[in-house]
Amino acid sequence: MVTMLDCIRRVPSLLDAIIENADRTFEQVFATFDPAGIDEICLIGSGTSYNSAATARYLAEAASGVRVSVVLPNEFLYAYTVRNPKALHVFISQTGTSTVTMNAMRYVNENGLMSAAVSEKAETPLAREAKAFINMGCGHEEFGMRTIGYSTTVLTLMLLGMKLGLKTGRLGGDAYRAYLSQAKAASQNIPQVIEKALHWMDVGRRRIMRADFIAFSGTAALYGVATEAAVTVWEAPQYPSAGYELDEGMHGPNYGYNDNHAVIVLNDGGRDSEKALALARYMRNEHGNGYVIGVGARDDHDLGFEPAGGPFCCLEFAAAIQVFMYRLAVDGGRDFSILGVHAKMNSYFNSHT
Description:
Blueprint: H1 4-20, H2 22-25, H3 27-32, E1 40-44, H4 48-64, E2 67-71, H5 73-78, E3 87-92, H6 99-110, E4 114-119, H7 125-129, E5 133-135, H8 148-168, H9 173-209, E6 213-218, H10 221-235, E7 241-245, H11 253-256, E8 261-267, H12 273-287, E9 290-294, E10 303-304, H13 314-331, H14 343-346
Parallel strand pairs: 1-2, 1-3, 3-4, 4-5, 6-7, 6-8, 8-9, 9-10
Helix pairs in contact: 1-8, 1-9, 1-13, 4-8, 4-10, 8-9, 9-13, 10-13
């Protein structure tokens, strides 16, 4: 029987394959649309797809040299009225069955705008209706709580930005190859991060498991990891949770924290590192439940590791969070065999058809 941990361990090999197959993955989109005619990448998706886009946008924008925006499909359809005719609209759905995402893509197609779909295979409903298909690179994922799909989508969207920059000349060949080396380094470090995360849960999970709320905090791409962590920790181990951009999470939520709350800070040692560590120290010293993942760990109370992937280190942090989510669920007695069976819920609403 395949476990979710097996899926998490599978991620590095899939990331390596995405890097290896990058030319083929984006061949259709750049054969369909002239790269020189694209001055924005608009990433549209819900749930994990949205969080993946929010994680990838920083590197994708820096590498492509064009604005990269991230929009929920309902917001795209109903809250915005100004459309950019030179934007490449990239719709993201692993199964390709997200109803509102499909509606948003149909709107783009009907209005003669550029559309591409990122999905698990070319035969999904979303992929079939898109003007160009981009393979997510996830293969078959056994569990509805996405681990593989999140990580592979993040890398795929980053590579989309890199390829656009390379084709337009905004990103030089040396810089492109340097990015690839960093992506490979991140992938190679994930197995070590997984083992450290498993050890961390063996040593320190008891105090976290007694919390009645978990907050995740991170800056830039790690904010996307934090929001995805909040989703998965609520849906699998069923802990109420939230993800905050580091500074935003210190403008109000910090006044609400108490001894029953755990705060987990994702820190890559870059911008705002000292602020991140200060938040973790406050929660640890005053409430006994503050933790650092990444740089600045003090002891086994934290999950310390040195990120290897530069701007791709979000993939390493994602692995740590995925192990954390998995172990919280398993150690708390959550039965994964029943997850993904939503007949009762679907009698009320179904967001995928």
